[in-house]
Design brief:
The protein is built from 13 helices and eight strands. The mean pLDDT is 92. The longest helix has 23 residues. It has 328 residues and is α/β, with parallel strands linked by helices. The chain has an eight-stranded mixed beta sheet, with helices on both faces. It folds into two domains: 185 residues, Rossmann fold; 129 residues, N-(1-d-carboxylethyl)-l-norvaline Dehydrogenase, domain 2, CATH 1.10.1040.10. Bound molecules: nicotinamide-adenine-dinucleotide.
Amino acid sequence: MNGNLKIQDNTIGIVGLGLMGSSIIASLLALGHPVKAIAPIHGEKEIGYKRILEQLHLCEKFDILQAPVEEYLSLLTVSSEYNDLEDCHLVVECIVENLAIKETVFKKIAEVTSKRTILASNTSAIPISILQKAVPDPQRFIGIHWAEPAFATRFLEIICGKETDEETTAAVCKLALSWGKEPTVLRRDIRGFITNRLMYAVYREILHLVEKGDTSFADADKCFRYDAGSWMTLMGIFRRMDYEGLKDYYTAYSNIFPLLSNSDGISLQMQKIVDAHSRGIQNGKGFYSYTRQEAMQWSQAFSAFNKDIFHLAANYPERISETSNGTK
Ligand SMILES: NC(=O)c1ccc[n+]([C@@H]2O[C@H](COP(=O)([O-])OP(=O)(O)OC[C@H]3O[C@@H](n4cnc5c(N)ncnc54)[C@H](O)[C@@H]3O)[C@@H](O)[C@H]2O)c1
């Protein structure tokens, strides 16, 4: 990909039109990229188009669009033909989380794209070093991990596989910055990448405490919302420790680390919930129970919250010293 091109000159291909694929497509259209969307499953073209349209309308609701939805749709082509990816500068795979299926799809993508096209996967957990073996020229293969909704989150994890070259990583970082993201680079594709590993450490500890009867789900959620929730988006973790005073953390580590769960078994509580066929807000049964209306209210609240935090976070970017918020 030529880093000097304007956004509008970089055509991007997206393969897979599910939740993430359609959300990423809407975010790229909103930025002005021509997008070639590939529906890999027979009959998915129409439903895929509908999903993209819905996501564009959500972008409109989030005040992200500068023009009517129809103008962005003129940048979009939806087809089932991999050949349509031929002139893409970047192709991102967004299909089901299944190694064998992803490998088959990447072989098809590699057959029709030029050696200069960057190939990327939005996988949540499959190692990039394994996936990149499916294509010739694996140095142009990289992980680009979005969070949902793609158009309203500043998060973007860029994951290098063993064979990914510097040029590819630099081109994707540059592109991510032009998208208004705060990209992070994971140089070695450790299992779970960065953000999932952090969260799984938290999940293990809280399930352990609840299982011992030390607290309840509801109180644990309240702590997380109103403590971590009040500083995370601004500071992250290391800056928070700098801010609070490092000596206290140092002392607390030696006292608390030996007390934390290091179990590698599955929590019994979690096992019970899964055995009862609970699927959370999808079927109203999980750690909490939900009526259909409550489930819908949580989805709507999540969407509205994302909008608020997207705009709020823009006032406090990583380079805070360049803003009035850092100097007042
Ligand atoms: N959902 C999230 O919040 C999220 C976040 C980050 C990354 N991801 C990753 O993004 C990818 C897609 O996730 P999603 O949530 O959009 O899934 P999804 O179930 O909504 O969509 C999956 C898509 O995969 C395609 N597909 C299904 N079977 C296929 C087959 N046999 N051959 C080719 N294509 C097939 C279809 O286009 C389908 O729409 C996964 O790798 C997932 O781990 C998801």
